[in-house]
Amino acid sequence: MAGFRTIDDMPALTGKTVLVRADLNVPMADGVVGDDTRLRAAVATIAALADAGARVAVLSHFGRPKGRDTKNSLKPVAAALAGVLGRDVAFIDDCVGEAAAAALAALPAGSVAVLENTRFHAGEETNDPAFVAELARMGDFYVNDAFSAAHRAHASTEGLAHHLPAFAGRTMEAELKALRAALGTPKRPVAAVVGGAKVSSKIDVLTNLVGQVDHLMIGGGMANTFLAARGIDVGKSLCEHDLKDTALAIMARAEAAGCTIHLPYDVVVAKEFKAHAANRIANIHDIAADEMVLDIGPAAVEALGDALKTCATCVWNGPLGAFELPPFDAATVALARTAAALTQGGTLLTVAGGGDTVAALAHAGVTQDFSFISTAGGAFLEWMEGKPLPGVVALQH
């Protein structure tokens, strides 16, 4: 990850217009924001630029509209952002064009405005050069603060960085620093905890990680596929039997790279997939034909915790069991709390991210105790796969 400029490197901004690509794609129901995490993430950058005297023009996509569609307007989000920011936020009903440019220019220095959904224009998702040029005419500088959209080479996430002086916002800066510390130039040994239901969704993640980390800890439904590949009968557990060869290939790669793969040797099994289903702890060689593995067992969790104690860095993606169904959340909660305690003790750097991961760690009560938790889903996964992220590459110099 090469160097990038941050908003601390920007020149005097009084009277200038800064286009800030934020991620305002928040869940909405009846005009009310369901989760304002992404709005709060944008505050530091927007406030810093406005306080420096810039006109701040916030760009974002919202939903997947097919052309201009009032259901996907950012207008109600602009009102919610004003509440989170604690300052007025104007709304401009397009992101390009003479009328929008005039409305933006009429705002005083230090103002904040949200421009209408960039995806109302087909050129956004195709990164159309003509549309990028239209967007660029709206401002003097470009700040990308949307790491969660950095895996997309769209006009507002990638194209603009080639037309205007480009900088990383506070959220983007924090993400890039955390990712560099976790897999770019990490302190070793490095552990990766990878859970979730299916190997198929994380083949590229696992294939990349075995060449990057010292310990790969596999949980969730994925572990069943690896156990089956080793000849273990996993009963009626979720298992991708057609991916046994893929699992074997990943294990062979790990062995060649000197990476230890940790699979559970005790598991929690039940006959029903529901909360508080009757369950028992079983050795992996003692799973009945009518039982399914819903969590990894206490002995396996203790062994993983002991391995983490020898590590300096941990990357976490996905739960270890069916964490949304108690008591099959026990392994995820226990290992997360061990990782959190080691982080607070100063011996382990912990970076986590991806959909269910944030919910699982919040459920474990450790959100504040990890070094960094990314709210980016797809972008975080693609980074774990070792893929270059277009929005990040465009900021590098």
Fold blueprint:
Blueprint: E1 17-21, E2 28-29, E3 32-33, H1 37-51, E4 55-59, H2 75-85, E5 90-92, H3 98-105, E6 112-115, H4 122-126, H5 129-136, E7 141-144, E8 166-168, H6 170-184, E9 190-194, H7 203-209, E10 215-218, H8 220-229, H9 244-257, E11 260-262, E12 266-270, E13 279-283, E14 292-296, H10 298-308, E15 313-317, H11 330-344, E16 349-353, H12 355-363, E17 372-374, H13 378-384, H14 390-393
Parallel strand pairs: 1-4, 1-7, 4-6, 5-6, 7-8, 9-10, 9-15, 10-11, 15-16, 16-17
Antiparallel strand pairs: 2-3, 12-13, 12-14
Total of domains? 2
The averaged pLDDT comes out at 95
CATH architecture label name of the largest domain: 3-Layer(aba) Sandwich
Largest sheet: 6 strands, parallel
What labels describe this entry?
single chain, 397 residues, alpha/beta, Rossmann fold, 2 domains, 6-stranded parallel sheet, 14 helices, elongated
Structural overview:
With 397 residues, the protein is of the alpha/beta class. It folds into two domains: 7-170, Phosphoglycerate kinase, N-terminal domain (Rossmann fold), CATH 3.40.50.1260; 186-384, Phosphoglycerate kinase, N-terminal domain (Rossmann fold, 3-Layer(aba) Sandwich), CATH 3.40.50. The chain is built from 14 helices and 17 strands. It has helices at residues 37-51, 75-85, 98-105, 122-126, 129-136, 170-184, 203-209, 220-229, 244-257, 298-308, 330-344, 355-363, 378-384, 390-393, and strands spanning 17-21, 28-29, 32-33, 55-59, 90-92, 112-115, 141-144, 166-168, 190-194, 215-218, 260-262, 266-270, 279-283, 292-296, 313-317, 349-353, 372-374. Strand 15, helix 11 (330-344) and strand 16 form a beta-alpha-beta unit. Helix 8 (220-229) crosses helix 9 (244-257) and helix 10 runs parallel beside helix 11 (330-344). The longest helix has 15 residues, at 37-51.
